[in-house]
Amino acid sequence: MSKKYHDIRESAYEANMQLPKLGLVLFTFGNVSAADREERVFAIKPSGVPYEKLSPKKMVIVDFDGNIIDGDLRPSSDTKTHAVLYKHWENINGIVHTHSTYATAWAQTQRDIPIFGTTHADHLTVDVPCAPPMDDEMIKGDYEYETGFQIMNCFKEKGLSYEDVEMVLVGNHAPFTWGKTADKAVYNSAVLESVAQMAYLTEQINPSAPRLKDALIKKHFERKHGPNSYYGQ
Amino acid sequence: MSKKYHDIRESAYEANMQLPKLGLVLFTFGNVSAADREERVFAIKPSGVPYEKLSPKKMVIVDFDGNIIDGDLRPSSDTKTHAVLYKHWENINGIVHTHSTYATAWAQTQRDIPIFGTTHADHLTVDVPCAPPMDDEMIKGDYEYETGFQIMNCFKEKGLSYEDVEMVLVGNHAPFTWGKTADKAVYNSAVLESVAQMAYLTEQINPSAPRLKDALIKKHFERKHGPNSYYGQ
Amino acid sequence: MSKKYHDIRESAYEANMQLPKLGLVLFTFGNVSAADREERVFAIKPSGVPYEKLSPKKMVIVDFDGNIIDGDLRPSSDTKTHAVLYKHWENINGIVHTHSTYATAWAQTQRDIPIFGTTHADHLTVDVPCAPPMDDEMIKGDYEYETGFQIMNCFKEKGLSYEDVEMVLVGNHAPFTWGKTADKAVYNSAVLESVAQMAYLTEQINPSAPRLKDALIKKHFERKHGPNSYYGQ
Amino acid sequence: MSKKYHDIRESAYEANMQLPKLGLVLFTFGNVSAADREERVFAIKPSGVPYEKLSPKKMVIVDFDGNIIDGDLRPSSDTKTHAVLYKHWENINGIVHTHSTYATAWAQTQRDIPIFGTTHADHLTVDVPCAPPMDDEMIKGDYEYETGFQIMNCFKEKGLSYEDVEMVLVGNHAPFTWGKTADKAVYNSAVLESVAQMAYLTEQINPSAPRLKDALIKKHFERKHGPNSYYGQ
C-alpha cells in the first residue's frame, strides 16, 4: 500500500467516522471522499464495510476518471459520481453522500428546500436545489457516472455556483454535499439535514409561511461569507 | 439443555440484542428467531424476558409445527407465526417481528408503503405490502398461526415472492421481516423502519409526490441484486 | 427518618429514576409514587429536586388524605392528585405523572386517543380516555385535589374500570398512569407515550384510518389479560 | 487574563456546556452569556469554537455597549444582541440564543406559539411572542444590535414584561431566552423547545384545538410564580 496517499486516507477515514456520530447514516448508507488535487486522486470508503470496521488503510484510492489506483477493497458504489464532480469542479476536496432522513425525504418529493430562515441563509442564499430524476436513457447507461452530470446540469440550469452552494438533492435519491475539505463537506451534510427538518416543520405549522426576505438573506450570507465576514456563534 | 442447538441459540441471541441497539423495540415488544433447516427447528426469544436478561441458553427451540423441543422458558407469543413461515418458505433462516414506530403506524393505516426513492428500491422493487386484517373467524381461531397464513395469502394475492420482498406489514398490527440469516432479517427491520419514516415525511412535504419511476426502480434493484450486482455504499 | 417506610421509598426511588431513562421527562416534569396499603401511605418524589440528586431517603411519605407523615422535603405539587386516587381506587399501588411529549400533545387536543392497532389493544380495549378540563370553580379551589376527582369522574361517565384502563389524559394538562406496582405504572407511561406517537402518525398518514375492529381488540386483550392469557413477546 | 471575571466565566462556561447535553445545538449554533451587574459586563462564548474545546478562560468579557473588555478570542457574532438586552433589562443576568429545531421552525413561520396546555402555563401566561422580521433599513445597519431593539419593541407593542415572559422568537431567525441566571436562561431554552414541539403536535392532531382557558392559565402561573407559589414536580 502506497504511503503517498496517507493524508487523504486519514482525512477520508476521519470524515467517514463522523457520519454515524452525527446521526446521518443507517448501516453503510453513506460515504465520504477526500481528494489530493496534485495527484488527481481521491480516497473513498470501501463498499459495504460497516463504519466500526473501517480504518484509514481500508480507504480506496481512485483517480478522477473512476479508475482504482490503490487499495485492496472495492470502492463505494457511488465512486463514479464523486469522480465526475472532482474532475469538473476544481475547488472541492471533499464530497459526502448520505441517505439522511429529512434531506432524503425532500429529495423524494422532487422539491427544492425553500429558504425559510437564517439557519439556511447562514450557509446558502438560495433554495437547496433538487436535481430532477435523470432520463431513462441515462439511467440505463453508466448510472453513477451520469448522476454526477445530472448534478452539474442542475447547477448550470439554475445558474448556481458550486462554490456558493455546497449541497444538492438528487431527485428520488438522496443528498450530496461537498466543500474545500472532507470535514467541511460533512459539516454541510449535517447543516442540510437540520435545514431540511426545520423547513418541513415550518410548512407543517404554517403552509403559507413566506420565504426569507431578500435583505435578511443578503445580510446573513455576507456576515459569514462576505469580504467583511465576522460570523461564528 | 441440548448442545446441538448451540449455533441457532447464539444467532438468535445476537440478533435479538440488535433490536434495542437499533431503536426498534420498547421493552419486550419484538422477537427474532434463527432456524436450523436440517433439524427443522428454530431458536426464538422467550416470552416477556427483558433484553438485558437474555442469554443464548434462554432461547427456546421450537419445531416448524410450533412444538417446543428444548428450553426451560415459554417461547414468544408470536412463535406460531414464525413456525408457519419457516415451514412454507424454505429459503429463510431468520424472522423478526417488532412494533417499531413508523412501520407500525403504516400497518395501522392499512396502506402499503409507496416506493418513493432509491433507499426503498435498493431493497425491494414494489411497495411494502400491507396484509389486510384477517377475518373474524380466523381471529377467533388459532390467531398467531393464522397470522402466518395471512402473510402468505397476501403475498400470493399480490403475486410477490418472499425471496424478493423480505418484509410485510400486518394490518392494524405491526411488521414482520425475514431473510437468509437472522442478522439479515434484523437488517431488513431497520431498513423498513427508515423507509417507513421517509415515506411518511415525503407525503407530508408533498402530498402528490410521484412513485419512483420504473427505470430507477429497475436500476437500483439490479445493481444490488442482479446478476452483475455491484452495490454497497 | 422512619425505617418502616423503607420499601416504598426504595420502590418510588427506583421507579422515578426510570422516567429520564425512558425519555419521559424533561428536568423535573414528572413524578412517581409507591403506596403501602397497610399503612395507608405512599412515598413520592420531593418537589423540584432533579433526578440525578434523588435518593430513596429523599422520598416523602404522605397519607391518603395528603398529609405529610415523614420526610424532610416538600412533596411533589401533584401529591394531592396521587392521594385522591390511592384513597378511592383500592387496587393500585403505584401512580405516575409525566409531561411526555406525545401523550401531552394529545391531552392538549382534548381528544381521546383512538385504538388503531394491537400495540394499543395489548394494553387496553378502549380509546385512551381524555378527561375534560375542569370547571372554573374547581380550578379556583383545591386544584390538585380536584384533578383526582376529575379523573375519577371521567372514568365514571365513560363507564371505565381503573383496573382495565390504567391510564388517562387530563385535558390541557398531561397524562397520569397507575398500576399494581410503581414499576407497572412507569411501564404504562412508556406504553402510553408509544401508543400516542403511533396514533398521531397513523392519522397523519391516513386521516380516515379505521379504528381496530372488535374481534382484534378482544383477541389481543384476552391473550394478555384473559383467563387463558399467554402473551409476552 | 483578569481574575475579577472568574465567576461569570465559570457560569457562562457551565451554561454553554448544557446546550449540547440538552440537544439544543448543532455544532456551534448557540451561545450563552452570564452578566456581572456591578461591573456592567458579561462573559460570552467565543465565536466559532466547538463546545468540546471550550473552557472558562476562553469566555470573552464584553461591556453592555458591546466593547470587548477582556479575553483573547472574538466573542459570538450575536454579542451585540446580548449587550442591548443587558443594558435595558436590568433584572436579567443570563441570556441564551440557540437554533433549536422546533422553536426555530416556529420562528420561521412568524407565528406566536399558542398556549395550549399547562406545561406552557407553568412558565408563562401568554403565547410565546414572535418578533416580526425587522425593516430592511435596520437589517442593513448594525444588524445584531438592532436585533436587540427588535426584541424590546416586540415586548413594548405586546405589552409584555421581560420578567414575566423570559423567551422570544425572532421572526425568520431563532429563539432567545433569558433569566435571573445563565442556568435559568438555559432552562428556559429547553422549556421553550419542548413547548414548541408539543404545540406543533397539538395543531397537527387537532387543527381546531382551543387555547388553554383563562382559569387554568391563571392557576398554573400562580402556583409557580404567585405570592403563595408551591409548584415543583
From TrEMBL, chains A, B, C, D:
Known catalytic reactions: L-ribulose 5-phosphate = D-xylulose 5-phosphate
Keywords from the named record: Metal-binding, Zinc
Protein name: L-ribulose-5-phosphate 4-epimerase
Annotated SMART domains: Aldolase_II
EC number assigned by the record: 5.1.3.4
Source organism phylogeny: Bacteria, Pseudomonadati, Bacteroidota, Sphingobacteriia, Sphingobacteriales
Domain Class II aldolase/adducin N-terminal: from-to ranges: 10-200
Protein species of origin: Mucilaginibacter roseus
Enzyme class: isomerase
Keyword Chaperone annotated: no
NCBIfam families attached to this UniProt entry: PRK08193.1
Keyword Metal-binding: yes
SUPFAM superfamilies: AraD/HMP-PK domain-like
PANTHER family: FUCULOSE PHOSPHATE ALDOLASE (PTHR22789), L-RIBULOSE-5-PHOSPHATE 4-EPIMERASE SGBE (PTHR22789:SF8)
